[in-house]
Amino acid sequence: MRNASMSLLHYFGQRRGRLALVIAIIVVNAGLLTLGGIGSATALTVIVKRQAGPFFSWVGVTIAADLSYAVLLYFQTVQKTKLTQEIDTLIRADVAQRLGAQDYAGFHHETTATYTSWLTNDISTINEYGIGDLLMIIQQIAEIIFSGTTLFFFHWSLLVTVLVFAAAMVIFPRVFKAWMDRTSLARTKANERLVNVLEDMLNGFDTLFMTNLTKVVAEKIVAASRDVNHHYIAFGRASGAMYASTNGLSFLSQLLLLAQAGWLILRRLTPVGAISGVQYFGGTIFAELSGIAFNWREFRSVGPIMDKLATPGPNQSRDRPLILGRHGPPRCN
Q1: Residue 160: CA atoms inside 13 Å, Cβ hemisphere, count?
Q2: pLDDT, block means (10 residues), the chain with 333 residues
Q3: Angle between helix 283-300 and helix 4-14 axes, rounded to 10 deg
Q4: Does domain 4-310 have CATH number 1.20.1560.10?
Q5: Alpha-carbon radius of gyration of the chain
Q6: Which stretch of DSSP H or E encloses residue 194?
Q7: The whole model's pTM is what?
Q8: Contact assessment for residue 246 and residue 290, using Cβ atoms and an 8 Å cutoff
């Protein structure tokens, strides 16, 4: 299991029922957001024609769509949390099985503090940048598909423009991959060192107290904390550079798309409401595209962590092999 996406996809597969429910809610919510945007754009078109009845009807559609979205968002959050916790339990069970399959020397190759960090800090990182980002990418793809289809019905050339800029936004962030991977792994290693220092200092407090060296506790913890801070900031620089670059390209794309919509309206090739629709759906597409690029790089940065959890220790017992992802505890409720 040498790939983050493959490892996490395996765990998602073990909870495919819950995953299908979460995805269904995500897709329906994306459709409701699109319906709200269509309602707003159509309302603008009919009010320009001074058609009161259709105007208030479309306003009602927009309100209904937005309220439905808010209700489903609650259920989406609850089901996503349940899915995350179930996968956390699966991963912890696999790591525990791996540790149990090692011989004495293999187990003590790492400290208990390091193992604690694997089961806490690393799991939290996987939740945020693995599970959370992958579900966010699914939501972003759904919103892009709905928004792109709507733009096509306004005018086909709008969708062509979107596809051109979309290609640029997908390709450009690849330059940040190595930087993100390197800083992500360094950050998790720093977390391990911090947990080791915390355990050493707290377990050795009695000895330090008897030798009047308790001030060493604060010194060591502060030094380890600064080490963690340094690596979190390094990862923040990498992710921030990619985020700023992709968003800058997104803003430029939206402005050019808005100018194109204005030209089409002046040529009477699309309704007046398209100016609102293009702003909404174009903004959605480019924002989600930049988000996908950012979230995908973050998701891929989990790879080294999954590799570390899946790779057997140097002294693991050969007669008790373990393949991470083949073990599963009872389903969480």
Answers
A1: 5
A2: 56 88 94 89 82 86 92 94 91 83 79 80 85 91 90 86 80 78 85 85 80 81 88 87 79 84 85 80 80 80 78 47 39 38
A3: 100
A4: yes
A5: 25
A6: helix 177-203
A7: 0.66
A8: yes
